[in-house]
Automatic annotation (TrEMBL):
Protein name in UniProt: Thioredoxin domain-containing protein
CDD domains: TRX_family
Transmembrane segments: 6-24
Biological classification of the source: Bacteria, Bacillati, Actinomycetota, Actinomycetes, Micrococcales
Keyword hit for Manganese: no
Keywords: Membrane, Transmembrane, Transmembrane helix
Record has Endoplasmic reticulum as a keyword: no
Residue ranges occupied by any Thioredoxin domain in the UniProt entry: 56-138
InterPro entries in UniProt: Thioredoxin-like_sf, Thioredoxin_domain
UniProt xrefs under SUPFAM superfamilies: Thioredoxin-like
Organism of derivation: Pseudoclavibacter helvolus
Length: 146
């Protein structure tokens, strides 16, 4: 094969991998609060919250984490700050290495995963991947006006 053909094939493969990676990453952080949730997902078992955490008056933010994920640590810090600066909002963390039995029922395919619960403990939203602070705050505001 000619050297320029090999170079062209390598460049095409790199481009394909970059596009696939960009598309995959773009779909990772999504909010699933639109429309009606599936019946089996509409209520979250509040027993997944640590015993010393009571549900928030307005909302509860539940973060599913993995111990080896740097994105989880950054997301934890951000969500703790959001909860601390938002009246009636409580933060709770579920470590999937300690509570692996929750991975399948809550369809945790990527960490971090964030569930937003309303005051009654019903699932009001979901972010797969690290959400933007503005997105979380916008959903909390939407919960306030419901």
């Amino acid at each position: 094969m000619d050297g320029s053909v090999v170079l062209l094939v390598i460049m095409a493969l790199v481009l394909i991998v970059a596009v696939v990676g960009w598309l995959a990453r773009r779909g990772v952080s999504r909010f699933d609060g639109e429309g009606e949730p599936e019946p089996e997902q509409s209520e979250l078992d509040l027993e997944l919250l640590p015993e010393d955490i009571l549900p928030g008056r307005r909302a509860t933010i539940v973060l599913f984490t993995a111990p080896d994920s740097p994105e989880c640590a950054l997301t934890r810090w951000m969500l703790q700050d959001v909860a601390a600066t938002s009246a009636g909002v409580v933060f709770a963390e579920v470590d999937t290495s300690i509570r692996p039995e929750l991975v399948l029922p809550y369809d945790i395919v990527v960490t971090p995963t964030v569930l937003l619960l309303d005051a009654g403990g019903n699932r009001a939203g979901r972010f797969d991947g690290a959400p933007l602070r503005e997105s979380v705050e916008a959903q909390l505001i939407e919960l306030s006006v419901r």
